[in-house]
């Protein structure tokens, strides 16, 4: 198996990022996303870097997965938490170290930037993902998440 390369996403990756987000929503929540809205949402990250950035994992020159990092200011820590979101790995590449390599790159960048820490959401029933995150040194926190969406 060839080595993984992790790189910043570019606008040329937009179709793959849209496809991966749509697939992730179907797989994890059974949701069908509006692809036009999704494409605008992905493009908006490239339009406004303050929103975050995408990373892409490649193996043998083919994109096999990616994720989004966004920022949340913490007044308690006077620093940004980096949120790992929109994680997707192509089914054929799963259990091959793709997420681990992406995570290592996020952690490296976060340390270099002086981030307060890393956070992510995980489905309550996704035990495999939870074990992966714990194996990377992440710990479950004591907060529940609430949402009101859409507003209007």
From TrEMBL:
GO cellular component assignments: ribosome
InterPro entries recorded: Acyl_CoA_acyltransferase (IPR016181), Bact_Acetyltransf (IPR050832), GNAT_dom (IPR000182)
MF terms in GO: acyltransferase activity, transferring groups other than amino-acyl groups
Domain N-acetyltransferase, first and last residues per copy: 4-152
Segments passing through the bilayer: none
PANTHER family: AMINOALKYLPHOSPHONATE N-ACETYLTRANSFERASE-RELATED-RELATED
Protein name, per record: Ribosomal protein S18 acetylase RimI-like enzyme
